[in-house]
Amino acid sequence: MTHQGAMTYRAMMTALIAALSMLALVIATTDARAQSAPPSFADLVDEVGDAVVNITTSAVVAGRQGGPGPMLPEGSPLDDFFNDFLDRQQGPEQQRRRSQALGSGFVISEDGFIVTNNHVIEGADEILIEFRSGMELEATLIGTDPNTDIALLKVETDDPLPFVTLGDSEAMRVGDWVMAMGNPLGQGFSVSVGVVSARGRELSGSYDDYIQTDAAINRGNSGGPLFNMDGEVIGVNTAILSPTGGSIGIGFAMSSDVVTNVVAQLREFGETRRGWLGVRIQDVTADIAEGLGLEDARGALVTDVPEGPARDGGIEVGDVIISFAGEEIDDTRELVRVVGDSGVDETVRVVVLRDGETQTLRVTLGRRETAEGMGPSGNGNAQGPEQSSGEVLGLVVTPLTDAMRQQLDAQGVSGGLVIEQVDPASDAAAKGLQVGDIITEVAQQPVRTADDFRARIETAEEAGQKSILLLIRRAGNPRFVALSLEEDE
Fold first, then answer.
1. Residues with Cβ < 8 Å from 110, sequence gap 6 or more?
2. Whole-angstrom distance between the N-terminal and C-terminal Cα of the chain?
3. How far, in Å, CA of 469 to CA of 484, rounded?
4. Which of 333, 324, 295, 199 lies closest to 256 in space, CA to CA?
5. 379, 412 in Cβ contact below 8 A?
6. 222 annotated active-site
7. Is 0.85 surpassed by the pTM of this model?
8. Closest C-alpha among 56, 55, 46 to residue 179
9. Active-site hit among 104, 145, 149, 256
């Protein structure tokens, strides 16, 4: 073989080896993708299905005697007439009837603890658990948490029950396979499969952390488990978003990271015992960050510090909480979650930004459930001399008087300016300020007159600020608003 032929042969062999390597890589990748989408979920169903239960609840409710009333179109003006007529005919002693509701749940221990939704068992006087095997047992209620819509039940049996474990919802990624089980539409044990569509969804609660999935979830699935492919419960099926009441591919399951903590407290105490910091907060937006002189729009901005743990620990209005118990705080939702997960009477380190510098405070937490029953405390009605109205940044403001304080639910507010008019073309209008709002601070300093307001603006402009921070109260609720200084003349 000539030298040139040998070189050609080596080049051909090199190309062939490269092609074979590429083919092997493609085959391996295809195999990996095929393994991530199992041909059947039957083995997983067999593994965890016996721990999923149907729940039937019943309660005695008031009902009308004499059968059904007349059939009227929805919204008919005759509807109220016939309802009033029937109520007068039957009097106060109406016939009582037993109402039933259906839901789902799952066993989390061999001795019979069962997790479901609070709304499945709420108001029930009888709770019946039906297992996949056909066995039926009555359940007792251990505790509920309406904030997360979680309830814990208990059944008694001599034999150990099949159970499943709560997994790590934080490990789930959008696109991961999930499997929902339950009792949809009262049809009995049923399975649906889909993927994680989104994470960290909020619906209406302070502690919301929902996994969104396209696995079919219908009425009756409530309280049932959402499994990962390892057979761990990573969510409790709770809600659907639907204009018709049926599944349209948007279901929500409360994440197991939330459920694990709630269930542990219900199991130990029969109720939740969440930490309570005792502050009102709002998110730090970009314009608020600029008004505070902050580089990043993160943390939780303190708008009010009533009597409680935060005040005792030295937290002040205008502080930005950036760290709590060693966890970085990006927004108010994260702070609420971290505080709620903390122990009652636990002393934690809270890092705040104040006047451009960080300060570390130690705060001993109270209990939220106890604090929620407390009313607001007053701080006196001290007031300076009455001044005339003035116009600032598109706002006509006037000092807060005793008569206004009573009318605007501002008992305890000392000083302050009431907004009488808002220029529709102003930044104040764009930021949502309204007539009747009370401005208590400008640039984190108290104000009593329009001249105070103007003086704070002059100081901010001399410092080169593009916006200024206002603390306002509306219906007793405080919040910060940053207004642009560029249109001030």
1. 160, 161, 162, 163
2. 92
3. 9
4. 199
5. yes
6. yes
7. no
8. 46
9. 149
